[in-house]
Amino acid sequence: MESCEECLRLENRLRAASEHYVNLIVQRDQMLRNANPKASTVESVMRQARFRRNAAGRIFLDHRINHEALSRPKTKRAGQL
Ligand SMILES: [Zn+2]
User: Which of 12, 32, 41, 56 is the most buried (most CB within 10 A)?
Assistant: First the structure.
């Protein structure tokens, strides 16, 4: 299945959100290792980041499902746009 501009845009957004979330986990783990009291504040930011990542994943998946449904009749009737 080919990716359209929206696919790429949503995929990039999901990737950025995932990377951001993973970075926060790494940061939090480092803080916990150093017994940094700020670790708990990172946790609430982490929860928000996870929520955003999940939302981005859902939006991307929804689009892919629609995308597939939209591209199917197009390939059946090639040349008819
Ligand atoms: Zn698409």
Answer: 56
Q: Say if 81 falls within a structural domain.
A: no
In a domain, 21, yes or no: yes
Q: How far is the CA of 6 from the centre of ligand 1 (A)?
A: 5
The letter for the amino acid at 20 is H
- Each residue of 25-81: pLDDT tens digit? 999 999 999 999 999 999 999 999 999 999 999 999 999 999 888 877 655 555 544
**Residue 30 belongs to what domain range?**
5-76
Establish if 30 belongs to a structural domain.
yes
